[in-house]
Design brief:
The complex is a heterodimer of chains A (127) and B (365).
Chain A (H helix, E strand, L loop, with lengths): L7 E2 L4 E6 L2 E6 L1 H7 L2 E5 L6 E2 L4 E7 L3 E5 L4 E6 L2 H4 L3 H4 L7 E5 L11 H11 L1
Antiparallel strand pairs in A: 1-2, 2-3, 3-9, 4-6, 5-8, 6-7, 8-9
Chain B lengths: L1 E2 L3 H6 L3 E5 L2 E6 L3 H10 L1 E5 L4 E6 L3 H8 L12 E7 L5 E11 L2 E6 L4 H10 L6 E4 L4 E7 L3 H6 L14 E7 L2 E6 L8 E7 L3 H12 L4 E3 L2 H10 L34 H10 L4 E7 L10 E4 L2 E12 L4 E8 L9 E6 L2 E8 L12
Parallel strand pairs in B: 1-3, 4-14
Antiparallel strand pairs in B: 2-3, 4-10, 5-8, 5-9, 6-7, 7-8, 10-13, 11-12, 12-13, 15-18, 15-20, 16-17, 16-19, 17-18, 19-20
Helix pairs in contact in B: 2-7
The chains are: A alpha+beta (127), B alpha+beta (365).
């Protein structure tokens, strides 16, 4: 399983890249691996206001649908339309395939996220 | 969880193990789509040792089975296989099974893993005449070799000409890897292929020998995930989905396996009545028009009203569209009609289509 040092992670296996007050959100390598072949991504609408823990989108493998939760509150300001036609990008490049960008409304929420080391340990404990 | 004799092998091969009706089995190895396509284009090997095997023997074996199943085996030749639902008196399905006929006094029934104990009890409760029923599931492993290259691969391991075993026929006591096995030309993928039954202790060697024989033919290990998408594309019913305690074989469109002119069998009265009154629900196939993947239990809607529910649904790796089967009001079952599937509370458009979605490629002689 691959993790990237510069990212933050949630217990629901989302990754977050923080850039100023923007958060790029995707699912981790661990998550894509346990889902298997991803064949459908439901992308949220730009402008939607979400609270931390709300459903941001849905990622579906051949076998099952899996919700993606936002680890931070805020407004969706951009979505990755490419995933509509190429959902398999998430399998091939999970950290390059962000699902949405959120304008963070409460920066303190980012402090609750795990760093790469903690996330790796978290995954090991989960198994 | 119960393990098949090949459990360690699946782990070694990187199989992702899941709990399938209390059996620890691989849902996939390399990936469902890869495995699926490999079975359609070359060959795949499935460990289906969880399937149950029940023998029925005795001078009255034929009569007894005739009473238990909806299909008719009275004219079946030896070493042929018959598919049949087995029903309750109300027409609900106990299980759908394969009946391997050795002789009019000896049959082997292949039953769904999750139904094995229930089937054995049901058969035992209804025993009549000079018949003995035995659950021999724990002694036999089963491999399914499926795909267009299957015959070439298996032929490398056996002396008998496999062309002699035609679709839905079997040969008992075929020598393979120095042991005796039952080989049948059957499967659950819509492709040509074989199912091989062998004693547990010899299945490792058989598994390895098949991969050795299959390495120039693109043989891959395949898991339950691919098994499900393969059977869905050719619209083979899955117990608990298209047929169940609460769904009759007539509702599932299995009319040709229900011989209502047969003298007597459990469920005949209920099914005859259902046939004459007309079914109120029907299994249909549909493909998604809007984006979205249908899943089991999603509601099917017409004009905003619920008309049924999805029994199976998936992305189809061969067709690269999203497909499903549903149990709905027959008034909406005409191919071409549009209905909605409620996906996460949103009406998502789908079109009724003819079944199967993908044509079967059986080697019928």
């Amino acid at each position: 399983m691959k993790v990237l040092e510069e990212l933050k992670y949630s217990k629901e296996h989302e990754w977050v890249k923080i850039d100023g007050n923007k958060a790029y959100i995707g699912i981790t390598d661990h998550a894509q691996h346990s889902l298997g072949d991803i064949v459908f991504v439901e992308i949220p609408e730009v402008g939607t206001e979400l609270n931390k823990g709300d459903v941001l989108g849905v990622v579906e493998s051949v076998k099952a649908a899996s919700d993606v939760y936002t680890p931070v509150s805020g407004k969706i300001i951009e979505v990755n339309e490419d995933l509509t036609d190429s959902p398999e990008n998430i399998n091939e490049d999970p950290y390059g395939s962000w699902i949405a960008v959120i304008e963070i409304s409460d920066m303190s929420e980012t402090e609750e996220l795990m760093d790469a080391n903690d996330y790796e340990r978290f995954c090991q404990e989960e198994e | 969880m119960k393990k098949t004799p090949l459990y360690d092998k699946h782990c070694e091969l990187g199989g992702k193990i899941i709990d399938f009706h209390d059996w620890a089995l691989p849902v996939q190895y390399s990936g469902i789509i890869d495995e699926h396509k490999q079975v359609r284009n070359a060959a795949g090997l499935f460990d289906v040792s969880h399937m149950g095997e029940i023998t029925v023997e005795g001078p009255d074996a034929t009569e007894f089975i005739q009473k238990m199943i909806t299909n008719d085996i009275s004219k079946t030749r030896d070493f042929r296989i018959v598919y049949s639902p087995m029903c309750y008196p109300d027409g609900g399905v106990v299980d759908d099974i394969l009946i391997y006929k050795y002789s009019s006094e000896f049959y082997l029934l292949i039953v769904n893993a999750s139904n094995t104990d229930k089937d054995y009890d049901w058969l035992s409760q209804n025993l009549e005449g000079r018949v003995k029923v035995n659950n021999v599931s724990d002694y036999y492993a089963q491999l399914a070799l499926q795909g267009p290259e299957s015959e070439k691969i298996l032929q490398k391991l056996v002396d008998i000409p496999l062309g002699d075993i035609r679709f839905f026929n079997f040969m008992p006591e075929v020598e393979i890897c120095g042991q005796k096995a039952i080989i049948s030309r059957t499967g659950y993928t819509g492709e040509d292929g074989f199912e091989i039954y062998i004693k547990n202790e010899f299945v490792h060697k058989l598994w390895d020998s098949l991969f050795q024989a299959g390495k120039d033919y693109g043989l891959v290990p395949a898991g339950l995930g691919a098994r499900d998408t393969l059977r869905l594309e050719v619209a083979l019913p899955l117990y608990g989905h298209e047929i169940s305690r609460d769904i009759t074989p007539l509702e599932a469109g299995l009319d040709r396996f229900v011989k209502l002119d047969k003298e007597n069998f459990i469920g005949k009265d209920a099914l005859s009545e259902q046939k004459s009154m007309g079914i109120k629900r029907k299994i249909v196939g549909f493909e998604m028009v809007d984006r979205g993947i249908p899943r089991t239990q999603y509601d099917v809607l017409a004009n905003g009203e619920k008309i049924g529910y999805v029994t199976s649904g998936s992305f189809s790796p061969s067709l690269e569209i999203n497909i499903g089967m549903a149990l709905i009001d027959p008034a909406f079952s005409e191919p071409g009609l549009e209905v909605d599937i409620a996906i996460r509370n949103r009406a998502t458009k789908a079109r009724i289509v003819e079944l199967p979605f993908y044509s079967k490629k059986y080697a019928k002689g």
